[in-house]
């Protein structure tokens, strides 16, 4: 999976188990399954990303899936986008410690904050939001002809159905795909891949629950 970067992948796993837990980015109960459930689970995305792609990973948190993807695919350029300061700080430190500064960058903010500033052929997300919300955050960052690739669970098809009207409202006509990546059904990863297409992208109305939510203040 990681080739000559296997040692870096192990170093990243160790960072998650130490600083990641200490700073509240990873739950202590996740430590025994960091390798399979988190690092490899995210690295499998490389199977469905074209060679030389540019990637924006929104809501990157502790660097998942962006850092494992970068380690497994040295040919892609990855930008991590994370709004919370303590996570942003951890990501900067991890990039430096893993010597990934030539391949991985990090920006502090939400997906909405970097719209118009950054774009990529692929936008990735893991445990960020339901698809109906994620579409509005992620698809404006995808260049025409690119894809949104979201890690989802076994209920991916149900999420797609629930978000169908949102996707239609945004002018996306191609149906999302549910793909299984990885070595087998037991240890693989379920992803939803959405083609951005080449037509104009429209803004979808925000769900009512989101409209009622007061805006968050951003720490500087």
TrEMBL record:
**Compartment(s) of residence:** Cytoplasm
Q: Which SUPFAM superfamilies match?
A: S-adenosyl-L-methionine-dependent methyltransferases (SSF53335)
Per UniProt, where does S-adenosyl-L-methionine bind?
59, 64, 111-112, 126
Note one Pfam family from the annotation.
GidB
Q: Which Gene3D superfamilies match?
A: Vaccinia Virus protein VP39
Keywords (alphabetical) are:
Cytoplasm, Methyltransferase, rRNA processing, S-adenosyl-L-methionine, Transferase
Carries keyword Kinase? no
UniProt GO cellular component terms: cytosol
Tell me its EC number(s), please: 2.1.1.-
| Keyword Cytoplasm attributed | yes
A GO molecular-function descriptor: rRNA (guanine-N7-)-methyltransferase activity
Q: Name the HAMAP family on file.
A: 16SrRNA_methyltr_G
In UniProt terms, what function does this protein have? Answer: Specifically methylates the N7 position of a guanine in 16S rRNA.
Similarity section: Belongs to the methyltransferase superfamily. RNA methyltransferase RsmG family.
* The protein's name in its UniProt record: Ribosomal RNA small subunit methyltransferase G
Gene encoding it?
rsmG
């Amino acid at each position: 999976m990681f080739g000559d970067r296997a040692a870096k992948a192990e170093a990243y796993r160790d960072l998650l188990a130490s600083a990641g837990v200490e700073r509240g980015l990873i739950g202590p109960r996740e430590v025994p399954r960091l390798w399979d459930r988190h690092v490899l689970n995210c690295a499998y995305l490389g199977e469905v990303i074209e060679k030389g792609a540019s990637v924006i990973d929104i809501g990157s948190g502790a660097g998942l899936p962006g850092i494992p993807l970068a380690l497994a695919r040295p040919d892609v350029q990855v930008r991590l986008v994370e709004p919370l300061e303590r996570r942003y700080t951890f990501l900067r430190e991890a990039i430096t410690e893993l010597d990934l500064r030539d391949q991985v960058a990090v920006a502090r903010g939400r997906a909405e904050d970097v719209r118009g500033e950054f774009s990529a052929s692929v936008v990735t997300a893991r445990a960020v939001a339901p698809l109906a919300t994620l579409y509005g955050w992620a698809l404006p960052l995808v260049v025409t002809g690119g894809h949104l690739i979201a890690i989802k669970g076994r209920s991916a098809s149900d999420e797609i159905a629930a978000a169908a009207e949102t996707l239609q409202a945004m002018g996306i006509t191609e149906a999302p795909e549910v793909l299984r990546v990885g070595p087998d059904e037991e240890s693989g990863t379920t992803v939803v891949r959405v083609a951005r297409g080449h037509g104009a992208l429209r803004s979808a109305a925000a769900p009512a629950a989101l409209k009622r939510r007061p805006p968050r203040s951003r720490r500087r």
